Structures
1.
Amino acid sequence: MILAEFGWFQMLLLNWALPGIIGGIIAYVPLSMIIKSLRKLLDTLIAANEDGKISADEYNKIAADVKDLKANLVGLLTLFMKTRGTTMKSILMVLICGILLSGIGGCLWADSGTKLSLNMTAAAIGEINKRCETGDCNACREGLLRATKLTSNIANLANGGRGEVSE
Amino acid sequence: MSQITKIRELVAKLPLELQPYASHYVELLLNFQTSEIAALLDLAVGGDIKLAYQMLVAKMSTEELLDEMDRLNLMLIQQNKDAKAESEYLKNFLNVAIVIGIAAL
């Protein structure tokens, strides 16, 4: 009910802003940290190389750091892509299950109150049927008119409660 | 103690969800023998509501039975409306879930 009463702002927040913020925290922060570190190392490497004041050992050390950082970046991206795939599959599975369950209809969702009223209706119609068989014409005629409405409403309820009612 | 008070006491011993239904039929139960009331309550407590209700409607006059059918129809209409509201809620929930799913891709 709460979701049904949401306005456009809340829907916008829930649909776009929230996943965006969560996605940003999960993906952007570690990625940007690695990229910044990599950029800093590369700048140092380029500057040192241009000055010509860097020793071969220092150059090799920075180059190794850059290589490690690149490997970490690729590893993180791969992990992110894999996790993203798993998360996507999980979300899709939950959605498919939800859609299937909701599509099965009202019978499975019927609470005890609904089952009780269905049983009561069936018993009342059964009693009218008995009175028809005994030749009670008034009960039969009036009862059948009511039974038609009841049957229509039971059918709607059994089909998942589409709200179509026979007054 | 009058018979109707005794019946009300018996109704009070039923499960809570059945009490509003049973209270509606207290007057009708006056037409029952004590053994019939006991059998009916046993059925209701045992969960065989349909059979218990069949016993009740069998004792109703034609007018009472027709009124009862009208009452049942009103009950079904209300339940259909409630079910529609639940269905709308579920639909909205699925819409939100789908959009979140797409946004997460």
2.
Amino acid sequence: MNDDDFQRLWAAHGARLEHSVSVNEHLLRGALLREARGALTPYFGWRALELVLGAGLLFAIGPVVARHLGEPRYALLGSAAILYVALLIALTGYLLGRGASLRYERPVTELRHELDRLALVEYHGFKWALLGGVVTWLPIVLLALEALSGVDLLARVDGAWLLGNVAVGAALLGLGQLAARRLIERPTDPARASRLLDALSGRGLRQARARVAELAEFARE
Amino acid sequence: MDEAELAALVRRHAGLLHKVAYAYCRNPADREDLLQEIALQLWRAHDRFDRSQRESTWIYRVALNVAISFYRRERRHRERTSSLEDAPEGAWLSLAAPEVSDEAASLWRGLAELAPLERSLALLYLDGLDHATIAEVLGLSPSNVGTKLGRIKERLRANYQRSQTQERSQR
């Protein structure tokens, strides 16, 4: 079979397929209405919520840290907490902005490049958010409670207890990664849970890197 | 664009859209899902459609971009869940199961063995697009399309022949 035969065979197949599509305009109207109402997909909804919560947290703990900036514990842990939250906001804003600007009518390799890069940033961001969270989660909680109650909680907490929490957090992170690597091959639903497992086990990052390499290979002259 | 215009667009390019869906999805329920996703992206992108561009080029781009994303997402999801056979409720687009000749089935299997990006190139070639148009859809240079196409055609032919041999031995 030569090249022309393949094209003729495919054209004949296509002609059969053409007649097998039927469109129900009544149901289509409903689908478009749902689309118009729900312009924010769950992905964008979650990201927007993260952005609002992050900004709220920053506004709450920022003044607390500023009030106690002369105290080493606040200067060190408070600054780390603010930096962590600010970086999370920046990452979320970046993902939200880039995600919203994706255009499916762009040439295939260009869109794939954007999507693959975005996936890499997302998985790297998730990894660093987890690692940073282990160190900063307790100061963040204490500073947030301090903002609500007005009691100097961070100053009252024992330093050994703070260090102990970092150690426990790191141990939990390690256990979580081990569990994710074991669970990764099992049936999992919904999609968010499987993305979490991908991110925790490192598989998502490996896949994203492989896709970037595959695309580079495809686009190479 | 209202629903009547979108329905007309889908009907006008039904063959093209169904072939893209056919190249990336194995079962009819997935093909319906994918076609609906493509149609909704066409609807979203329609305001940005440049009238100086050919409509089919624009549709190929949207359809292939959605199909490759869908394929990767569904493949990952399928690895994790047992079944995706159910069609969505209230599907506005339905597909009858067309009769497929043995030769067309072998060609489709040969196509399905290619990587998603290579498959998009092979699909555009099989649809009879010239190198310049394929380059425009994929974002490659025409010379790169020519080089890649030579290799992909060889693999497609080998895949097709293997599929035909398997088909004969099963009879």
3.
Amino acid sequence: MSDQPVNQTKSFNDPLLDHEIVRNIAKLIHIDLGDDLADIYAHQFSEIIGFFQLLEKIDTSNVIPANEKSIMNSVTRDDVITPSIKQEDFFKNVPEIERHFVKIPNVFDER
Amino acid sequence: MDLKKLTIQQAHELLITKKISSFELTTEYLTRIKEIDPIINSYLTLNEELAISAAKKADERIAKATNITPLTGVPYSLKDCFSTRNVRTTCGSKILENYFPCYSASVVNKLESHGAILLGKQNMDEFGMGSSCENSAFFNTRNPWDLDRVPGGSSGGSAAGVSAGLSVFSIGEDTGGSIRMPAGFCNLVGLKPTYGRVSRYGHIALVSSFDCVGPMTRDVYDCALVLEHIAGKDPLDGTSLPDPTPSYPRSLGSSVKGMRLGIPKEYFELGMDQDVEKSIQDAIKVFKKIGMEIVEISLPNTQAALPVYYLILFAEASANLARFDGIRFGRSSRKDVDNVMDLIVKSRSEGFGEEVKRRIMLGTYVLSSGYYDAYYLKAQKVRSLIIEDFQSAFGNCDLILAPINPSKAFKIGEKTKDPLQMYLSDIFVVATNPAGIPSLAIPCGFDDGMPVGMQLIGNHLREESLFQAGHAYQLETDWHERQPPI
């Protein structure tokens, strides 16, 4: 695999994270950040990612990424029925239950 | 009895000769915990009732003299990242503050089958994200050697607790130094085993390709003993290794003469406090004295280990922590929410601490379209180079000696405002996890009254050699026998 950047691929030299990127990531991971935290994170993330740029100097042409190397064979086992978690045990941790169902608020906003 | 000194080996001897019962021993620990732990803050949850009833059962087992192992009746503690059936499991997070798992981790089941007594669950950085225990959502744990200092992290509660004599041993988890670093700060022995040596089933995952379950003990012998009882193939963990488990304590005592000890020159270029370096140099002299051959080796990509480790950690952690949504278990912020998305956002925003948010955001960023190749893929490629470095080093030596922490335990609050500085304190311990190889932390000196530790690193599944050399070192030194003032 070549190390040449493909279309759309950013490099370490691109501008580091700003307030807007941080807020966008927060949205993607379903976290509500206040403005103050977004500013602090933007500053910290730039510093952290900036430090990590030292990787760019390392020549990795013709190196296979560790996660693509087959280090293990597929692990399989016989499909044998074994006791499972009891429903009442599972429900002990469920925040809200109705009859035998996990209850959640509306999926579609009715407003 | 001085609980700060008691080893598993000694406890077992007392139990089988009926000089003490497990009930008495467990009660003694619970009493000390109530007296001392309000100062140290190592326990998040005490398991008093179940511990007492388990101790009574262990006494019956000992009375009948059937099915006794060296762990039967011995009280231990557990980092709170392992699921324990019907015992609160928080992982140091508000999002799991009231979570009572309906199953136990395999390591817990194994220890239970051997008759070990679970005293309670110990404090940790939230989801294992931290190097000082200050990222626990509940409270700071203090270092028993100096109450103003951190015990290290993320298995800080385990280290502080064992060091202060609040359990005989503990089970920790090491994703990038989380067993070795606090062991080093608190004068304990701690093992990060080979990846897959101990089942991860029931461990609340941080980085699935790095996470390793291991013992934290007073000496190398105990560490070998615990590993023997928790290692092995587990059908519930597809990444657990099928290799047979050796009787680790049996390898202790044999000569280390001729064993080659590699000293990685790059580690000494990274910089460490003078007293830490002196302790390591003194340790090298001890290894030489006991017949080991000292060889200089090179691990050229040492500096890259920290970025590689953190980039992969951010990425895998962001995926692993996506499951916490306030719907099926854990904190659920239902007040004033209009729809299910509001519920998820509110539960996660209120439930996760600052460092967890920081890391899962960075993980999402490095995995996002356009940045994946530059960060995540690059890190996985350099990870391959780090693995190659170690493999080539092990062509010239049997074991590698390295520092654990660049300094003694730092003051509580000293690094909390600067996450990058906190990450940099992991510099010596992170490389072994991307490489999947084992590393044993051993006390090797003191700096102004605070413990200094070193680590021996071995090739895959060479835990026996680590124990052999570590034990030989402890026969020559008494650092591990010193106890904190508390």
4.
Amino acid sequence: MKKINTTVNGIPRELMVSPTMRLIDLIRDVLGLTGTKEGCGEGECGACTVLLDGKPVDSCLVLAGQVQGREVITIEGISNGEEMHPLQKAFIEEGAVQCGYCTPGMILSAKALLDNNPNPSEEEIRRGISGNLCRCTGYKKIVKAIQAVSSGEV
Amino acid sequence: MRILDYYQPSTLEEALVCLGRSSGSTKLLAGGTDLIIKIRERSVEAEYIVDLVNVNELKGIVCDGDKLIIGSMVTFAELELNPLIREYTLILAEAAGTVGSPQIRNTATIGGNIANAAAAADSLPPLLALEARVRVQKAGGLREVPIEEILIGVNKTCLLPEEILTDIVIPIPQVNTEMAFVKLGRRKALAIARLNLGLAMNMAGDGKMVKVALALGAVGVSAYRVPQVEELLQGKYLIKDTISDACNLISRVVADKLGSRPTAPYKKSIAGAALHKALEDIKQRQGGC
């Protein structure tokens, strides 16, 4: 066990955990933030995507020790109180959520993309979410939802 | 995981001390995208982990005279966008952009890619074609080794347990150097290369190929240079017959290399196709001469 200082969704945390615990286990089992999903456990599916210092990473491939002194954002951390993030609204409005399992990771990848590049082309959007698998939607509605946010429709 | 301790040194010197305590059972953690999976599936046993995330000496990309020096902890996302890399060694930026996914590229490092030494590692063919060397540090000694000497098998390098790969050194290519990178995978994102190819060639003003460096990955146990094809191309012009001779030759080299392996017929044909694409791309950029 080691003391790890990290900021999760804007809240500074001092945690006594094993530094070799995976970040996804820290998020889900220690912090109880179950919005982050585990899919493949080896970085192929992106369901466990979180933002680390603003950049999307697979939380199944990061150890707790690696987030020492850094900032983690999970899907729970992007709404403004009760008000959903525009990407969350757009995903619902465009029907970009079906089973929902990929959605938290997909939205965080999309957020990182738009934070960096507010007006991405369709190709840039597809590349931005290329590390997130969705087996329901065929991606079209996901791309449309992201476009709706970048064009200011949502 | 049965990990006894986890160190997070903030300097290279401290990292070497941590590593020196019990180097045989210690693993260096770079980005973690390979190591964390291997530890979980127990194909790698480690009692101690030395996490290099805070070692600033291993970060950054600088131009030092006629060389580019890339810190081993530089991520593929950084490599893909770095202006120096894009200006002088575009194939390395292109290869970096094909690694895994955005999430993987934000974490995985070039040093980790080399030290992990996967047969299909995307950085290796470009690094071989660019004649990169790596700097390796241990307590009391630094050595610089050509990249091909580091690679000795699938997931095997000649790095010693007490050594840390600190930098990748690339001689800045001469003007009039043309380059190409080709990766063939089953899909665009998250593809483990079925074959990857790096090519760098210095061309005379009249379009004659003066010096050619060609490397293949995912064909055999480690990435390697293909001197037979380099020799065939050197001194010639990029015309149709030369291109087709080179593609036939690389297919034969690959067929010999893979022998009776089930993938041999497929890899033989895609090696020819990949080289064809690389040479045609360069020819077109040269204005079709």
